[in-house]
Every structure is written in C-alpha cells, then in structure tokens.
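batch_manifest entry 22 of 60
target: RING finger protein 207
source organism: Acanthosepion pharaonis
requested by: lab member K.T.
priority: normal
notes from requester: please return tokens only, no post-processing; we will run our own comparison against the previous entry in this batch. if the run fails, retry once and flag.
--- input ---
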Amino acid sequence: MFFCNTCSQPLCDICREETHKAKMFARHEIILLSKKTKEVHKRCALHGEQYIMFSTEKKVMLCINCFRDMKVESRAHCVDLETAYKQGCNKLDQAVQSIQDLQNTVKEGIQVLRSLLVEIRQNSEAEKDAINQLYDSMQQRIAEKKKELLEEVERQYQVKEKLFKAQLLNLNTLLPTLHVNLVTCSAFCSSANKFEFLNLSFALMERLHSIAQKQHPLRPTQGSQINTDHKNEYANNTLQVKSGLLFSKRYTCAFLLPIYSLPSSHLLDNQDGVVWSIPFRTCSPQVTFLSTANTFASYNLPKSARPTPHVQHLRGLTCTGATCLFFFFTGDPSVFPGLFSFS
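--- output ---
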C-alpha cells in the first residue's frame, strides 16, 4: 500500500500503476503507507509541528506551540520524549508482569480445579463404597436411610461439580484473553516507536490494569470432601429394639433388664451427672444385653450379684418403658458394684 501526500489518500498497487502514472500526477509525492502512518504520530495534528515534549499530567505529546499555549503550572508536568518513553516502558513492564503473574495463577487454579474434579469423583466413589459396605452388614431397616445418604452424596457431588466446572469454565475463558493481551503487548513493544508508544501505550496499560484488578475466581471456594456422616446416620437409624427405643451412639454397650412391673422412679442430682433411683426387688435375675454388633445374649446373674431388696443407684440409666428398663455404660462395668459380675 502507498499514500499520495498531494492527494491525501491511500493508493493500492493497481491505482499507483494505472491512475497515478498519468502526466498530471507526475509531480505528486507518493510514499509508503507505513511511512505515512508513522509520520502521523510524529507531528501535532493541531499545529503541524513535530512533537518535542510529553505531558505526564494529560498523557499527550506536545509540539512547541502546544507547550507555549499551556498554563505555567502545567508545564512543570512536561518531560522530554526520551524520558517519557523510558518511564512508559517501565510502567508497561510492570503491567505486563502483573498479567503474567495472573496468568500463572490462573494456570495453577485450572490445575487445582481439574485435580479437584478428579478427587471429588474418587471421593464420591469411595464414600459410596463405604456406605454400601456398611449397608451390607446391617438389616433391611436401613434401606431407606441408605437411599437418603446416597442422594445426599450425589447432591454434594452435583453441587461441588457444578461449582468447580463453573470456576474452571471461567478460568478457561480468562486464559485466552490474558494470552491475547500479552501477545498484543509483546507485538506493540517490538514494533512501536517511541512516538507510537507514547501515543497508544497508556490506553493499553489502562486495559491491562483493569484486567489485573478485576476479581477472578482463582481459587476454589470449597474443598473436595464428600461427607454425609453416614456412620452416625446408620447408627441412629439401626440401633433399635422391639420396644421402639433408640440407643444412643455414645455408649459402648446397652443392657436390657426385663421387669414384671415398672416402679415409680425419680431423678436425683449428682456431681457425676444424672442418676436414676430404681427399686430392683422385682427384677428378674436374668440379664439380657444388646452389644454394639446388634446381637442379643443372656447372662444369668450369680446369687451374689443379684440386686438386693434395697434401692440401687445406677449411673447412666436413661430410658424406661412399659416392660423394660434400659441403661448404658461407657467403660468398665465395675461402675455398677454389687449388681453384675462378668467372667
């Protein structure tokens, strides 16, 4: 492409060879278009004079006439073109460095999110396997609870997967934008002269700053854990007896004492906690207990260990029913002296 300074219009190769070969165009000044575009940046559009100064206040280049027309206080913000060029290069380098740092952080975020997607799939499968293994060891009554837990796992997985994929899509969309801006900066720095640089670089730097300052989801807002607290949920749902009473998961063992009639009981305050006071003179000498494995067994109390006619105070006694009395212990059964003996 060419440019005719006389006609003030650009010319293609065909126009130059055919149209401007006539005698009437013989004195026209024809130059390369690239040279013309560079010349535009060297001269003031208002006065036609060559630029000699740069205003750091207004971010514009000034010719001698522009400089004379400025207010005195504004002249203090003017520097020569070489100084302005060096200052601009330093600022652009800082802006590019911030974008490069952001690019590296985005890449790290993408890797983290991809690994999190793999981890949540693995953790989801592991959690499902754990739930299924626990389910297989229990009775039919936990079928509904199993379904609820698996739905909760799937819900957590779907929520986390949706969140991570949304963040991953955001970062994958951001990365090409950062790359394009870096390539643009690189091309601009390598091809622009100082006049073009000072005329265009500050708009570019503002764009880079706006990208760098914008909030980006660089780190995942949640972890990859999939947790339903399934063991406790299963325990609460499955440790039941025919009376419909629910054993607390806090205890290691539970004992069931059949009695012929339930006497009135009262609650005592004790420094060790709540203590139920129950008369045991009507209790059966046979003790049936329920272990943590949900199996029943019987133990015949020896005569020396049977309840005495007077009132016995039992620590940790909790539930009462129409025909059964439940109490629990959390450690050594010796906390019940004189009541039980274990071989």
